[in-house]
Structures are given as C-alpha cells and as structure tokens.
Amino acid sequence: MDKQRDFVLRTIEERGIKFVRLWFTDVVGTLKSVAIAPAEVEGAFNEGLGFDGSAIEGLTRSFEADVLAHPDPTTFQILPWRGEVDPTARMFCDITTPDGQPAVADPRNVLKRTLAKAADRGFTFYTHPEVEFYLLKSSKYGKNGPIPVDSAGYFDNVPGGTAHDFRRRSVRMLEDLGISVEFSHHEAGPGQNEIDLRYADALTTADNIMTFRTVVKEVAIEQGVYATFMPKPMSEHPGSGMHTHMSLFEGDANAFYEAGAKYQLSKIGRQFIAGLLKHAPEITAVTNQFVNSYKRLWGGDEAPSFVCWGHNNRSALVRVPLYKPNKGQSARVEYRAIDSAANPYLAYSLMLAAGLKGIEEGYELPPEAEDNVWSLSDTERRALGYTQLPASLDHAIQFMEESELVAETLGEQVFNYVLLNKRQEWRDYRSQVTPFELQKNLEML
C-alpha cells in the first residue's frame, strides 16, 4: 500500500495534477465527489478527510455525523475528459468513523464485508456486467416522451451515427481509465446501447460501474446528447438491464466448473443458483430499486418476471450460458433481473449472499425451464412451480422487510435506510394522478 501511495504522489507531481477528486456513494448509489488540492493528498492518506456524513443520504444518523473519507490509492486514475486544462484525478474512498471503524452505512464497506465472508469460505467472487442505457437528444421530453438519438435496432451499424461515435469515444475513455471493455453495440431500442465490461473481482467491478456511468454521462454532454440509465424510459421500447455474469473461484480453479456434469455445472454452481432463486424476491428492492424498475421487469422484451433458471433460456431469471469446450474457467451463471440503475455495491453484496446461502444450506436446484416462460399461461407456470418476482416496488418492499438475509447482509442501518427511502418513493408515486388515468377516466366518468 505504501508503494501505491508513493506512486500516486509521484504521478500527481509528474503529471501536474491540479485537483484530486475523492469519490464515494450514498446508499442509493449516487456518486459523491469532493475535490482536494494535491498538497492535501498525503494528509488524506494518513488521516482521512473529515466531513459531515449526515449531509449524505443514509450515510449516518444525525447524532453521529462526523466521518472520514480514506482514499484507496489502488483506484487512482487521471480523468481523461478533463484533458490538459487543470488535469484532474480521482480515487474511490472507504468511509470510517473518527475512531477508525468502517462506517456501517458505507455501501463499499457492505460489499467488502460480504466479500470477506466469501473469502472465509475460500471463495473469490468475479462479476461481468452488461450495461444498457439510452442516448436521447436531450433530458427534456415532450408529449410523446423522450426523443432517442436514432431509430436503429439490435447490433445495427450506423455509419457516422451519434451512437457509433459515442461508443467509440466512451470505450477509448474507459480504456484510458484502466477499465477493460469486452463488447459494445447498439441494443434493441432506438438510441439504446450496451457496453460490456470485462470480468473482474466484484469490488473492482462495482467501482468500474460507478466510473462507467460518469464516463457515459460526460461523453454524452461532450457530444451534445443525453445519456440515461433509467430502467424503462419509454413504455413501447425495451428497458435497460445490467445482466451480470458471476462465478466463484477457489484459488485459480473455477468452483462452478465440473467436467462431465450437466452443462459442466458443479454442485457448488447448482447450489449457488438455487440460492439466487430462493432469495430473488427478497433482494429485488435493491437490484431493482425504483418504481420505474418494475415497468421493465413486467414490460416484456426479455426482462425476467418469473423465478426460474434455464440453459441459454433468455426468458429465465438465471441463465447458464453455453459452455465453451475446454474453457472451464469461463463457467458462470447470469442474473438477468438487475437493472442499470442499481447501486452495484449493495446489489452485488445481496446476489453473492443469496448464492452463498444456497451453498451453506445445500439448497436443491429445481428443474430447469425449457420453454419461453413468458409464453406459458399462469396455470402452466403455477403447475411448473414458477413463482413471480415482485410486481411493484411496494411488493418488493414487503419481501425485503421480512428478509433475514437482506437485513444481515446490509446491516441494520443500511437495511432501515433503504426501506425508509423506498417506502417514501412508493408513497410519492402512489399519490400521483397520471396521464394514463386522465386519458382513461376523465371524460368517461
């Protein structure tokens, strides 16, 4: 760590860095930033930077407001969109109390705690997210809703198009920040894009997602358009998910891989999926944290609505991708409910905790779904034992309130704050009179 600190201090001097931004998130997953002068960085490393945590949503109770931000030198990067005018760098921070204890409501610490539990059992948790978002002409919207930058579709190549230039610029910028990109392409909706980040340990991935959102927003501004990670900005077009591929490793060995087993999936892999399925309804208020998230989950277009798994079945909640012969290290499972607006630190904590619970308790994996689950009738789904994911944020809150797994994983303070925050959002939403109601009822009633 000392070597890494020395590297940061030397780089700041050599590159003429004028500002260093210290980044962390609140419980909702909103990125927070405070800029310090280069001369203050060494002191921040040694003692942390004090601030009033009660000003950050969910971070502290008002009577324990003082907290310290400790920059993580391994996350130091120069921000490429700032260019050579007042060069600026950033580091993610861990938040502590004045006596040096991790702040219980720091989302990054929640994930570190859950990863430590996995490590105690000999596991390292790797994740690979596929992040979808929409590019719009502006943040303003008219009578017909937001206006996408193009009318292209899935994998379409639009020579000279906004999205094409946008993805190229974004990928280059992400690579400059040390974030490896695996794929980028146009998605199914007009103006919808997907960029897939290369797999990494879950803490690095969560940091990368927070950086990714910032990069995408900055490049959009630079190009005169607007990027949104809203789960379902347009009712007639697909929502934006963040399908995440996951695997557990024991040392250098993929714990999900077993040569000769069905789909090459080990007992540990099967139990992990069983844990995800059993606890999915309880964690949905975090993986799908907004009222709008449920418009995506229940709006069709391959979004999962029912609790089941399948081999390469895109209507299932959990998918086991096609196995690549002789590539046991690539064995993984894909969780398809999580959307692009989730707080990645909390969502990945709960997805890991659910999978670990399945391994610890030896959960049995139910039979796989071989049909398109959407095309089945309710009666057929009931007969096959497919329960549904929560149909609304209110429904998801009810599942979360009763969940020991979520309470234990998030810790009391984060658990209570998420519930408080989501209940308020549901109350605000429920009190609205929507255009739908006026259109349907005003003249008729």
Automatic annotation (TrEMBL):
- Name the residues that span the membrane: none
Q: Give the UniProt keywords, A-Z.
A: ATP-binding, Ligase, Magnesium, Metal-binding, Nucleotide-binding
Q: Which SMART domains does the UniProt entry name for this protein?
A: Gln-synt_C
Organism of derivation: Cryobacterium levicorallinum
Q: Which Pfam families match?
A: Gln-synt_C (PF00120), Gln-synt_N (PF03951)
| Family statement | Belongs to the glutamine synthetase family.
Residues annotated as domain GS beta-grasp: 15-100
Provide a Gene Ontology MF annotation, just one.
Answer: ATP binding
What is the taxonomic lineage of the source species? Answer: Bacteria, Bacillati, Actinomycetota, Actinomycetes, Micrococcales
GO biological processes: glutamine biosynthetic process
> Record's PROSITE patterns?
GLNA_ATP (PS00181), GS_BETA_GRASP (PS51986), GS_CATALYTIC (PS51987)
* PANTHER family assigned: GAMMA-GLUTAMYLPOLYAMINE SYNTHETASE GLNA2, GAMMA-GLUTAMYLPUTRESCINE SYNTHETASE
Q: Could you confirm whether the keyword Plastid appears in this record?
A: no
Record carries keyword Nucleotide-binding: yes
Q: Which cofactor does it need?
A: Mg(2+)
Protein name per the record: Glutamine synthetase
In this chain the GS catalytic domain maps to 107-445
Q: Which Gene3D superfamilies match?
A: Glutamine synthetase, N-terminal domain, Glutamine synthetase/guanido kinase, catalytic domain
